[in-house]
């Protein structure tokens, strides 16, 4: 399945909630979901139509699609993350989210060096960073504890808030530890994803 390249705000409207895919715009009055909090394709007299009630399977599928959209991963890659999470000790759902948070493009975004994960992925692809002194241009690379990520050029800071599992110092970021579920602030019920793949 090809990567979705259409309007990002359309994904939020189709899921019925903000997925924060466009950085600062998601917090502004120009956010499409804020201005049009109804599914794509509805207009005029159809605005009074309510969202159809979906089945348990539909809710589980929707939750999986939301996570894929947030982190920008495809189905095959997502299945591999789930298998790895399932084979790791602990709760499968939490393990899955922690694996996704460990992606290099996500860490760049969490550090505040990019306005969105999409921009972070592009920056990684264009060789903007070193990991432990070595060039790394693979967005899906999973960082490890105590890894050092270094920007080749002085990065812009889009977000001053630092995560407790990251330590930013100028052009470098140290991975202090892996994030816990409480430190992953995305609107997801990972148990629905576990239920989806358990069938």
Description:
The chain is an alpha+beta fold and 199 residues long. 38% of the residues lie in helices and 9% in strands. It folds into 2 domains: 92 residues, Orthogonal Bundle (Ribosomal Protein S4 Delta 41, Chain A, domain 1), CATH 1.10.1050.10; 81 residues, Structural Genomics Hypothetical 15.5 Kd Protein In mrcA-pckA Intergenic Region, Chain A. The protein contains 8 helices and 5 strands. A 5-stranded antiparallel beta sheet has the order 2-1-3-5-4, with no helix packed on it. A hairpin with a 2-residue loop joins strand 1 and strand 2. The relative contact order is 0.14. The mean pLDDT is 85.
Notable characteristics:
38% helix; globular; alpha+beta; Ribosomal Protein S4 Delta 41, Chain A, domain 1; 8 helices; 5-stranded antiparallel β-sheet; 199 residues; Structural Genomics Hypothetical 15.5 Kd Protein In mrcA-pckA Intergenic Region, Chain A; 2 domains
The value of Rg in angstroms is: 18 Å
Percent in helix: 25-40%
Following the backbone from N to C, one meets helices and strands in this order, namely HHHHHHHEEEEEH
CATH topology of the largest domain: Ribosomal Protein S4 Delta 41, Chain A, domain 1
Unreliable runs: none
Please state the oligomeric state of the protein chains shown: single chain
What's the count of strands?
A: 5
Q: What is the global morphology?
A: globular
CATH class of the largest domain: Mainly Alpha
Strand count, sense and barrel status of the largest sheet are: 5 strands, antiparallel
Structural class: alpha+beta
Q: Could you give me the name of the CATH homologous superfamily of the largest domain?
A: Ribosomal protein S4/S9, N-terminal domain
